[in-house]
Design a protein that fits this description.
single chain, 544 residues, alpha/beta, Rossmann fold, six-stranded antiparallel sheet, 15 strands, DNA damage, RecF/RecN/SMC_N, P-loop_NTPase, DNA repair protein RecN, nucleotide-binding
């Protein structure tokens, strides 16, 4: 509940301090006195958007703060210590709004989540919202208390939406995936078929060059062998030189070393001759082998295009392609399988939706009975309130269309609330709904603005009684112009404006009678008017 409310620099309010109590509180005052700004301040604390034009002229900002006392069941739901919340929000004339809870800066969405869960405000705009099917459905769900059923349906719906999106993606990409699989498999098979070695390029280039130039190589190698091994050639010359060294080594023993080195050179030359001869004899013309190797090199060059510059890079590409094939094969799903999963998800939506539908039907019947009972006490005994729960195609909120209808009297047709119900009728239906929902809601404070629209006399007394009834379980704050309702309150606060500035204060005793006389349209000095006001207060006390 709200304990205190402080307003500074908002509209006609310069500085106001309101202290609230449990039970039923009314705010009264002449039109334009500033009652609307009190409600605006509360909407600010609920995180609602408020235009900077609401900042009082001459002030650089408006500030609102309030102290809330939490009831025990709510403490665990809010991540703050203790049972007291201090909510603060500032609205600058220029710049960004700021908010805090217990001196901790918070985003506006947290105000909406926390304060919006503690306070419910009803005004003329809320009557318009109440005509909407979405708001009516929310009321039925709140009354039913089937949060788990609703959460299960929403979860099934989201999964079905995801399954449909996945099915569409699978169908759209299936041909592309198949084309990619076919391409990768063809390339992998082609690379594997070649059985490439790491030095494949050098080997092919060497072998092709050798086979392409076999005749020239044989001729040149033959010339080299001839220059080394013919009579009078290099080996003969080296042999003659060795003979000389052997003859003179007896003259100088150190020459033996030179002779040994020359002898080794001659042996190497002879071995070189033999190797070159073998190499020359191996150089045979082989056009078929040359063609085979040339084709292999062409295949390799074709495979390298766009996949690497070397065989090592090509083999790395092949490895990655194999991994991608596994990914496409394992993670991929056929359109048929995707369609099957979608149908299974849609069936789960229907199952969850049917359970939710039955729960809503039961709740609608109970809520209808409760509201009609309340309307009977709000001078609408001939009216009949009803809730139709019609099965429709599944949507994000369920498989139901919920419509609240009102028949003002037995001879009138039953029509949706949004089609024909007057403002006064809507005010009383809204009040009846809130009284019926009171035990099912988390909100501990109800604020009504113009709940008295279009009513008066005995009806106003009944509305006041119902508001007081609601205030026995929840804190109720009402902005009203009707003395019959104001007289029913436990606490009476007056908003008045003087010289462009509004102030708020509590009235009791004679001061309260003065305010009720004003609301009755009489003079405060009129004994008859004061007696009438006193009678209203007495009537309220007698109905306790």
């Amino acid at each position: 509940m709200i304990d205190e409310l402080r307003i500074r620099g908002l509209g006609v309010i310069d500085d106001a301090h309101l202290e609230f109590s449990p039970g039923f509180t009314v705010l009264t005052g002449e039109t334009g006195a500033g009652k609307t700004m009190v409600l605006t301040s509360l909407r600010m604390l609920m995180g609602e958007k408020v235009d900077s034009s609401a900042v009082r002229s001459g002030c650089d900002r408006a500030e609102v703060d309030a102290v809330f006392t939490l009831v025990a069941p709510l403490i665990a739901d809010i991540e703050f210590d203790g049972d007291e919340l201090i909510i603060w929000r500032t609205l600058p004339a220029h710049g960004r709004t700021r908010a805090a809870i217990n001196a901790r800066p918070v985003p506006l969405r947290l105000l909406t989540e926390i304060v919006g869960g503690l306070v419910t405000i009803h005004g003329q705009s809320d009557q318009w919202l109440m005509r909407r099917e979405e708001a009516q459905r929310t009321m039925v769900d709140s009354f039913a208390g089937h949060d788990k059923l609703l959460a299960a349906y929403v979860d099934a719906w989201k999964k079905a939406v995801a399954a449909k999106r996945h099915r569409d993606q699978v169908v759209e990409s299936f041909d592309k995936v198949q084309a990619e699989v076919q391409y990768l498999q063809t390339m992998v098979d082609a690379i594997a078929k070649l059985e490439l070695a790491a030095d494949e390029e050098n080997f092919l280039n060497t072998q092709i060059d050798r086979l392409s130039n076999a005749n020239r190589l044989r001729d040149d190698i033959g010339g080299v062998v001839s220059s080394l091994d013919r009579d009078g050639g290099v080996t003969d010359t080296l042999g003659n030189a060795l003979g000389i060294l052997r003859r003179i080594e007896r003259l100088d023993a150190s020459i033996s070393d030179y002779a040994g080195r020359l002898e080794a050179i001659i042996a190497d030359a002879q071995e070189l001759v033999r190797d070159l001869t073998d190499y020359g004899e191996s150089l045979l013309d082989d056009p078929q082998e040359l063609e085979r190797l040339s084709q292999r090199r062409a295949q390799l060059e074709e495979l390298l295009k766009g996949r690497g510059q070397t065989v090592s890079e090509l083999l790395a590409w092949e490895s990655a392609a194999r991994d991608r094939l596994v990914e496409l094969t394992d993670a991929g799903m056929s359109p048929d399988e995707a369609e099957k999963r979608l149908q299974e998800a849609q069936q789960r939506v229907l199952t969850a939706g049917e359970r939710l539908h039955h729960s809503r039907e039961k709740a609608a019947k109970r809520l209808t009975t409760a509201v009609n009972k309340e309307l009977s006490g709000l001078a609408m005994k001939e009216a009949t309130f009803s809730i139709n729960v019609t099965a429709v195609r599944p949507a994000s909120h369920g498989c139901d269309e919920i419509t609240m209808e009102l028949r003002p009297h037995p001879h009138a047709p039953s029509r949706p609330l949004g089609e024909g119900a007057s403002g006064g009728e809507l005010s009383r239906v809204m009040l009846a709904l809130e009284v019926a929902l009171g035990s099912q809601t988390r909100a501990t404070t109800y604020i009504f603005d113009e709940v008295d629209a279009g009513i008066g006399g005995r009806t106003a007394l009944e509305v006041g009684n119902r508001l007081r009834s609601l205030s026995r379980t929840q804190q109720v704050i009402v902005v009203t112009h009707l003395p019959q309702i104001a007289a029913m309150a436990d606490k009476h606060m007056v908003v008045a404006k003087k010289s462009g500035t509004a102030r708020v204060w509590e009235v009791a005793g004679e001061a309260r009678i003065d305010e009720l006389v004003r609301m009755l349209g009489g003079e405060t000095t009129s004994l008859a008017a004061r007696r009438h006001a006193s009678e209203l207060l007495g009537l309220a006390e007698s109905q306790e």
